[in-house]
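Figure S4 source data
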Amino acid sequence: MATEKRKRKKSKNHHLEMKEQKAPTSNSSTNQRQKDKTKNQGSMTLASQLKRKRGTAATTALPPEWSGVSNCTAKFLEPDDGENFESCVRECYQGFVYEKADDLPKEFHEKFTSSFHGLDDSGLFLYDVVQPGGKKLSLTFVTRTLVGDPGSTYKYLGLRLFSHPWCDIDDDGNGKVIGSLCDAQNSYGQTLIELGYSKKCTRALYYTGLLNKELSTRTNSILKNEIAPSVKDGLVGSADYSLTLINRMEPTTVKKDLKNDKIHGIGKTSVSWHKDSGLSDFSSIAVYHHIEGKNTATNGNEISPWRVALRVADEKTRTPALSVPLPSGTVYYLLDDFNHQHEHAVISGSSSLRYSSTHRVARAGAGTWQYIRDKCRKVISSNICEQVLLAADSNIKPAFEACTNSTQRKQLIKEVQACHQLMTELEFEWIRQWYIQGRTHARLHPYWKELIKLLEMYHQQLGTVVRCINSALKSAKGDIVSEDLFDVTIEAIENRGKLRNEWKQRLKDSIFKTLEQEARPFKCETLEENDDVEAAVVRDWRGAFVSKEFDEVNADAEQKSNKKRKRKDKTAGLTKKEKKRTASNWERMKKKIK
């Protein structure tokens, strides 16, 4: 018995010893998990970290109402308002910062001025025909051009702007590393000159790219010193600017049709109230502006300086707007989340031309040549596309691989759907956006000339694939045909038809008649060859296919299935999604009762 007790005691002591030995292992495991967590956070993109810790633009809270609003009746404040202005900026406009011209290097101003003049002399500034709210078309009050990473675009108010590259490019349209100002004057820019840009224009584009890098560095410094300390974990948005929208603005003495700001009474707006769109959440914006010559009074009239106006993006707010006159050579910043819950406008000066360069971080993903190029290559290399295009090259009918199980059928549907979606995206987001801007625009964008042709070629190849699929659907033969294949085809064709009708109305707008001939939309032969079958026809094919399948399944029970057959015939042409939306028997009965 004593021996048994000693054994149990020894076993207990042994267990405690083992537990003590495992303790360090447990701590080690915890440390490893912490390391893994840190490593995972380190591997997350900045956008992912910001979304996780700070939310999105849509979830960003409005700034607090200004504490001095009860003692101030002004609709807007200016620097001359002293402490009222300063306190309002501190409380409600955190993230608005500007650097005076004297605080910036002389060479910085010289290069920006040289760039503006080079772009202007090259004819790159154009008016845009935009569609605010997707309704009536209008002509912008300013001329503008987009410069940025090779292949970048910027879409606003229904129009896609195609950028001019600010650095050399390779054979696939990608950018090369920007060198120094000295390089820009000497060896750099050869690939742009070979595309068709003049030496003067190439130098202006290169200067813009180099100055963009300088602005990015300055922005990051301000973010670190002024914004990061007040943000959780010091996590601020990006200032790695990928493009700049450069505006050329005429003063009120020249541009007579500018509209007054009716809400705040600040003055005539060259650029009306807006948030910059298509940008990465929490990304900063930097604007350099240059005013030609000196403001001089004309006919005894009072001089009105160019100003930037800011307001909280909330109709119910009582916080006054700001009106800030900025001398030539000033850089102002809208930092971090400022663009989320604030709007800005440009109030026109009375006597001098103004250039402004607005540097931004475009949202990652869609909207670049690299994105659409890679997407085209991926879809064209899919099984279904390769089968059809190889057969087309050999002028033979494609023999589709057998779809004998659900996995193969799902993959086929997925590939056909990708074909349709890409075909639609190419037509309405790229090709039509290019041709609506006119021949002058096309001539001034040599970087894009061959790339647009490539996109048209991809569109034609996808058209070949879609026609082949349609042929299979019409015959209703082969194991690739299914209700799901009919459905993705019907939905895609109807969507394209709707978009084409919208573009047809857009192109009929009388505003295009006010433009010079070379600035008007011109025809794209690729789109003229459109031969999409009508969706109604495909619905008929679907109905015939479903009815045939129904007959085959119910061949032995024909008498019992007559009523079912009639009901089936009525819905055979509907897609599965449409059938789900069809009212139930009970809903129909309730309607009859009413």
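Figure S5 source data
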Amino acid sequence: NKTAPSPRTGPPRSPSRSTSPPRATPSLGATSPNRSSPRSISPSRSSSPSTSHTTSPNRSSRTHSTPFSSKKYGHSSYLEIAIDPSNAVRQSPTLSHEDETAITNLRKRVPASEFGGPYGVTFLTFALPFVVYWIWASIQYNDGYLLHPEGYSPLAFIKFIEQVYTYAKEGAAPTWNAFVLYFSWFFGQAFLQHYVPGRFVYGSPLPGGYRLKYWMNGWTCWCITLAITVFLCSFGIVSPTILADNHGPLITIVTAWSFLFTILLKLHSKLKNEEERMSGYFFYDFWMGFARNPRIGTFDLKLFCEARPGLILWVLMNFSLAAKQYKIYGEVTISMMMVCAFHFWYIADYYYHEEAILTTMDIITEKFGYMLVFGDLVWVPFTYCFQAFYLLKHTPNGQPIHISLQYAMVIMVLKACGYYLFRWVNSQKHAFRLNPDDLIWGSHPTYISTKRGTKLLTSGFWGVARHLNYTGDIILSWTWCLPCMFDSPAPYFYGIYFTALDLHRCWRDHHECKRKYGSDWD
């Protein structure tokens, strides 16, 4: 969500509240874009229904006094950025008692209670790569039909795992070409993120009242990347099928990189003393993350991974699979064109509304660990393209799937309804954050003033239900699957996964807002 993203509130009691801005990520947590980042294993959602919002600062730095001792509070990233005004700003030059408490609480041990605790996250850490290989192998070697154990005995499951491993070893072994291809891509996107012109935008308040600066240039980077891709393919410098031809090896290389990258994040947070909300369980902290906003200078590692390499690679992978279909069959089917167009629109919409990611749960609340790293770098680009991969490989009677224009129109209508609901609900929330006096449905908005000094919107769609943006998002996810018809559940993996993800995210969001707003949320 990986925004559109791939760009990523609660049940209504009268009146209902809003808590979630346009999404990305997705995260099993991914980004899908205004989904925030379609994100990812943990696609982004909004974390707070307050009117605190992002603003665009002047690019010139401002100095802020820091009358507190880093020795007393520890060399936390929040104190560090206060000393460096090029990275963040505080509305008050002094720390209030609440600010001090918020910073001190970051150092306290937290219970390992999410995602099944230490055992649950350990399982997920290794099970999720297996799921990616399993569905990839099913489409690559079994005509799109899911591989499965031949029975329910332990021996049958062992043979099933060995079968997937054999296919992965055969078709997904890392190659030098795939290695060079991916890291040229990864660091090329990092170069664009850092050097392409854009503008600074302040993020939402963090513990201690700080607001980090973010360099927003996603739309320009998106257009530059597409232009370079067209140029390279048009002049024969790079084959349009290069990603499709290296699909399996890329999965292995990026999966290994996600493990190594997370270890590097651990070392980075340890050296800079930025760890917060640690549980003391290795795999739990490895999964949940170490620091909230790891940066190299002003380069924000979490925002980069959420918003750049995985999301754009997802779209280009679709196009490469479509080029492969054309090369083999001499046509690009209506189904393939619809899937590619839907995903392209979703990512373009994310970059057009890129600032919305700064008010999502992934950016504000989540620490940066394996959950988001794997989701951003592997899960988004290599599972969200499974519909296009299925349409290439599943060939009944030796030919790709063909659908009627009437069926295609039905899908388009559903897509339009889902997008309309998703975008309009999020737009009302975002507009309220920017200006609480803007009209909603022709009337002045109503809201609840909280004890925290923020406002909970209770007008428009947010007066109907807390999560209608998720409803639109779920409709969108299923329309991406419908062009694949119904021979196999493999291309419906995204719709099933994303529905479960949004329901889980609703539950997490509700409990976080209950903790944050207390009786005001009730």
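Residues 1-85 have pLDDT under 50 and may be disordered. The beta strands are 31-33, 36-39, 88-90, 199-202, 210-216, 295-296, 299-300, 447-449, 455-457.
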